[in-house]
Amino acid sequence: MINSATRRCTALGQAPAKRILAATRRGRALQPFSPGQLSSSMAEVTSSTDGGLRETVKTAAAYSDAAAYPGGAPAGPADVAHEDDGPMRFRGNGGESTTRPRRGAAVPGLAANCWGQDELKQRYPQLSENVDADVCIVGGGISGLTTAYLLAKAGKRVVVLESRLLGSGQTGRALGDMTSWHTGLFSSLERWTSKEQRQQVGISNAEAINFVESVVESEGISCGFTRCPNYLLPGPAVAVPGDSRDPRSVSSRSSNSSAREGERVLMQEFEAAKAAGLDVNMVELDRKAGGGGKALQLPDGAVINPLLYIQGLASAITGKYGGRIYENTRMRKANPSAKTLTTMEGCQVQTRQGYVLATAAPVTSSLLDSALHVAALHGKQHVRRRYVVALKIPKNSGYQPGVYYDTSEPQHSATITPGKQSTKMRSGYHDLLLVSGEAHDQGKRPSQYGQPLQQLESWARSRWPAAGERLYAWSYQYFQTAEDLGLYGSDPTITTTKDVYVATGDCGRIMTGGTLGGNIIASQILGWPAGQLYKDLYNPSRKLRGGIPGLPAWSPRYFKNTIQSALDMLLPLPRYVKAAGDIENLARGEGTIINSGLRKVAVYKDEDGQVERFSGLCPHLGCLLQWNPEDKEWNCPCHGSCFDKQGANIAGPSTIDMTRIK
User: Fold this and answer.
1) Which among 401, 25, 373, 464 is positioned nearest to 209, based on CA atoms?
2) What is the CA radius of gyration of the chain?
3) Alpha carbons 63 and 160: distance in angstroms, whole number
4) Integer distance in angstroms from the first to the last C-alpha of the chain?
5) Comparison of pLDDT for 73 and 208, the residue scoring more
6) Tell me: the pLDDT tens digits for 382-399?
7) Per-residue pLDDT tens for 120-139?
8) Taking a C-beta distance cutoff of 8 angstroms, is the pair 538, 561 a contact?
9) What does the alpha-carbon distance between residue 401 and residue 297 come to, in Å, rounded to a whole number?
10) How far apart are CA 635 and CA 623, in angstroms?
11) Which of 167, 265, 289, 490 is most exposed, with the fewest beta carbons within 10 Å of its own?
């Protein structure tokens, strides 16, 4: 995965800052296509697009091998021409609710966002027969398709199974930012890692960006990939749950003290990032760059349209390298010893070298499998929910381009993305300010949500005063590990073999982490030396320092959320939760959990006043589900399963729908 030039620098003891800077500025990219081609150079990318939203890509049919799709070539991509239809919140999917929608049926759980996720259409067939492959990848997001791309290009027979549509998960909801910055600040890594490991974090993130740039150029993917600087802004001092040694953990102070504390954290991160080898500088920003003031600047980050990028990957996989992709094909069970996967329709995929679970939370196929993953994997991370708003901003407003992060907990991120022509602005054109943040643990009670979108807008307008009306708002789910490092590699459960791999725990860095995870897993499958470079750092079985000796770093938040869910399930719910007799008072378009004798029942009232009832327990391991009033869906606080308002499964580890009650 890491090019040979970088490995030689490491062996020669070159300063880490020079290693990262050299790798980035030379354009050396992650290209683990064969052991002898790891250091292939690339020319500087010259984009022929304006980086605008919702551009079209080449259709899969233009590339596809008819023999690979006996049922017919994949359909073309969705028409994703940008339409400015004014402010909106979260759009329901409507239509038939099913975990296995056929062509033309409604797809549950799509977000109305600026990338056009809600306009996705099926491009690849549903699996309808038994097939065999060298490797099967479950999940059609960034980590799964990156893995499939590398394996297919290396000559492996690859099959990708996607339960809904490519990009219908968290990749299609991502901000589109890529950065070498560690998600939890490099200064917070000092508890868990050595100096050398922190240097590896910076190198691996930089190489992930280089890899995407290389693929965009070599495959001709029009996805608005643009290099830009990253900035870290001082955030207000806040109380951070967890370790008191976290540099962001401070008590409540006055605004002046809070500002001084923010600068202190910024300086601490400056020293930590320098020590980790990043080419970071302390700069003074003007008012048109995130509100002005002191900030850290890291060159050579990037922004990208995530949906167009993975659609381009898919076209290359199927059209140039002979891979096969099946949409609307949900995995139901797996047999690790036989290296087989079985779909909900009973079709079987027989693999020679195993399979990859690239599904955010690894999907599980039995009660035993689920229980073992709790001990081996789920307990190392907890599930979070993060919000995004897209605000109209005047084109050519003079705001400095880049991706902006702050040191707050939860962290905020922002970037300006070119927009298409608008009929709602006098100037005729606008850009979009994309802002994400206000993250919280998934599955909290509806009364605890507050107003995350309004809070996010307030933060954005305090730093970009010209921001106008909200055009889009959505959220995405991510998994946060105790050490703020992803889990990419062999499945750590004791019942699996070395031929089962997982990609999870990207900590909200969806594009950077997913790209890195795909490279690590592909390199391990192919037996390339690059697969061993980060074995200790990103290994799902890792045992870093800072925890209990000999044991992995468990996530305290996971156990807190799971225990709370168990208590809610066993004890009568408090009075603010609707009783069975109060359903008539439930607002249309809303859901709630009710006490019904000894049972917990999930109730949803649709816009026509019709009431649907489901078991309130998650079909994965029985945690009590909670209604999410922002996304209008049911969320599991323990392991991350999500279901749309009508009970259809939209995210694992559960592979089945909520249980309907007549």
Assistant:
1) 25
2) 23
3) 17
4) 53
5) 208
6) 889 999 999 998 877 778
7) 999 999 999 999 999 999 99
8) no
9) 12
10) 10
11) 490
- Rounded Cα distance, 249 and 187, in Å: 12
**Closest C-alpha to 437, from 410, 416, 399:** 410
Instruction: Dump the DSSP string for 158-224.
Output: EEEE-SS-TT-SSGGGS--EE-SS-TT-GGGGGGT--HHHHHHHHHHHHHHHHHHHHHHHHHT--S-
Flag whether pLDDT at 478 surpasses 70: yes
d(CA 365, CA 381): 20
Contacts of 24 (CB under 8 A, 6+ apart): 180, 206, 209, 210, 279, 299, 300
DSSP annotation of 364 reads -
Q: What are the residues facing 479 on neighbouring strands?
A: 383
Tokens 């020590």 belong to: 275
Q: Per residue, what are the HEC states of 612-659?
A: EEEECECCCCCCECEEECCCCEEECCCCCCEEECCCCEEECCCCCCCC
Tokens standing for residue 287: 């008012």
Between 123 and 239, the more confident residue is 123
* Alpha-carbon gap, residue 322 to 65, rounded angstroms: 7
Over residues 33-74, the pLDDT tens digits come to 332 332 332 222 223 333 333 333 333 333 233 333 333 333
Q: What is the pLDDT of residue 421?
A: 38
Closest CA to 478 of 360, 303, 359, 620: 360
Helix (H, G, I), strand (E, B) or coil at 255: helix
Calpha distance 90→110 (Å, rounded): 10
> Alpha-carbon distance 224 to 303, whole Å?
8
Pairing status of strand 355-357 against strand 500-504:
parallel
The single-letter code of the amino acid at 14 is Q
